[in-house]
From TrEMBL:
<dbReference type="InterPro" id="IPR048777">
    <property type="entry name" value="CATIP_N"/>
</dbReference>
<dbReference type="InterPro" id="IPR047501">
    <property type="entry name" value="DD_CATIP"/>
</dbReference>
<protein>
    <recommendedName>
        <fullName>Ciliogenesis-associated TTC17-interacting protein N-terminal domain-containing protein</fullName>
    </recommendedName>
</protein>
<dbReference type="Pfam" id="PF21772">
    <property type="entry name" value="CATIP_N"/>
</dbReference>
<feature type="domain" description="Ciliogenesis-associated TTC17-interacting protein N-terminal">
    <location>
        <begin position="28"/>
        <end position="237"/>
    </location>
</feature>
Length: 483
């Protein structure tokens, strides 16, 4: 720990330019967020730029006491049919000193061309390793940069963190550092900071913080970059003045959200595929799932036949409740189709399943109420109910049935006196209303049947093949009403 302190004492002190510099818990949380940008060509209209790539930045807090930062920057684009991009992975202290950084730039043009620079701290110097890769050759170079001559060195990852901090505190002034290009050349890096002012960007009037960064090489070449940020440190636009493309904030981003993580609104049906990053992820998942399903069906041809049989049966039967029909259909193919009716904790589980299947065959399903009736006890219950019905409640039931018969006879006499040209629809409606009135009269009979077992009744079904004893009595009454 003491060695690190001695090393960092030899590096620049940010308080030289910002005397009130500090990063507390609140500022650290404000610096850590992800942002997504798009790469556009400059030769397009500023209001209608076509994206050619994506650019993402992520800053995280790391370390045992969360006093260090991990910066991850990744970009990809396609220009003139050639795919290229860059990647930066950097660890930085809370005073913007680089601990380690690996930066890569690549392009595919008749093969891979790649440049990589690695920067790390060793003893009293920066250890730099350069790697150049082309289709026919790969070379590397190692050199050390002393702290004495490069004490103001700031890496590209630290540059991202610094710009966010300057926007948060609304700093005004000029900062001067050193940086290293991808080729390993040392350059002078100057930051010209303009405080927040109101300006129009992408047809929106916003409060914008501006940083103009100038990289001056030893040969006199100057590269200028102008970055527009919000007061929270989010990049609205990043313009390389000497290259043909520009960075813009994702148009789906909502700048008014106060949370530290940016929210991406749900894309509309006709515009989601214009987001290159989202469309690329969609295609990756789509083709991956298609490949998985195709491989599985190729290895298991019986699945295809099983689905074909199910669809054929579904088209023939045409059930009203497709979900229940599907459950019952595929339940037969389950490994343990009866587990929901038995307890797996019993030792004689297999015997219980067999016995239940055997007993189920002796049951009769009532087509009206939908309950199973024990076939072995059906005769006994029927005889007891008939006896109860004919002896104990003979007088009461006779009154009910006779009233039904008299009502039917009176209705029949009245029907014969009506005109013959009454439509069938009116007759059907009269019968339905008559049946509804009669239901209250044979409610007493239903109560007598409930002495043995309670069932729900089907109020409109009169076509019965297998019914329980209670429903059988009701069915007889319905037949009387029809006659």
């Amino acid at each position: 720990m003491s060695d690190k302190k001695e090393i960092f004492c030899k590096l620049f002190d940010i308080r030289k330019w910002i005397p009130e510099f500090s990063i507390d818990y609140i500022k650290r949380a404000a610096l850590c967020f992800r942002e997504s940008l798009i790469v556009c060509l400059k030769n397009e209209s500023m209001n209608d730029m076509k994206p050619i790539g994506s650019y993402s930045i992520l800053v995280e807090s790391i370390g045992p006491k969360a006093q260090e930062f991990l910066i991850h920057v990744q970009s990809s684009m396609s220009i003139d049919g050639h795919f290229g991009g860059s990647k930066v992975i950097s660890s930085v202290t809370s005073k913007f000193h680089c601990l380690e950084e690996k930066r890569t730039e690549f392009i595919y043009e008749n093969g891979l061309y790649e440049k990589t620079i690695f920067i790390g701290i060793e003893d009293n110097c920066y250890h730099v390793k350069l790697t150049h890769t082309c289709p026919c050759d790969k070379s590397s170079e190692i050199k050390d940069l002393s702290f004495y001559t490069n004490s103001r060195l700031i890496s590209e990852g630290a540059n991202i963190l610094l710009m966010r901090y300057l926007a948060l505190i609304n700093y005004e002034g000029i900062l001067s550092f050193q940086s290293i290009s991808i080729d390993g050349d040392s350059t002078e890096s100057n930051y010209i900071c303009t405080p927040i002012e109101c300006m129009e960007l992408d047809n929106r009037v916003l409060n914008v913080y501006t940083i103009e960064r100038k990289l001056c090489r030893e040969d006199g070449t100057v590269h200028t970059m102008r970055t527009y940020l919000t007061a929270k440190g989010r990049i609205l636009r990043h313009n390389w003045l000497d290259v043909p493309y520009i960075l813009k904030i994702n148009p789906l981003a909502d700048l008014n959200i106060p949370s530290k993580t940016i929210r991406i609104e749900t894309p509309l049906k006709d515009s989601w595929n214009k987001d290159i990053e989202m469309f690329s992820k969609y295609l990756d998942i789509k083709f991956s799932k298609i490949a998985e399903e195709t491989e599985y069906l190729a290895d298991h041809p019986e699945i295809k036949q099983l689905i074909a049989d199910y669809i054929q049966i579904l088209l023939v039967v045409k059930p009203e409740n497709v979900i229940d029909f599907t459950i019952q259909h595929f339940k037969a193919f389950a490994k343990n189709p009866m587990t929901w009716e038995t307890s797996i904790l019993k030792e004689d589980y297999d015997n219980n399943v067999t016995s239940q299947l055997t007993e189920k065959k002796l049951d009769t399903l009532c087509n009206i109420c939908g309950f199973y009736v024990d076939y072995t006890a059906l005769k006994k219950i029927c005889s007891e109910e008939i006896t109860c019905f004919t002896q104990e409640n003979h007088e009461e039931n006779s009154k009910v049935i006779s009233s039904i018969d008299s009502k039917n006879s009176n209705d029949c006499m009245s029907d014969t006196e009506e005109k013959l040209d009454i439509s069938t629809l009116i007759n059907q409606s009269n019968f339905s209303s008559q049946l509804k009135k009669t239901c209250d009269q044979y409610e007493d009979i239903i109560k007598i049947c409930d002495k043995y077992k309670s069932y729900t009744k089907c109020s409109e079904c009169s076509k019965v093949s297998k019914i329980c004893t209670k429903c059988s009595i009701i069915d007889q009454i319905l037949h009387k009403l029809k006659d």
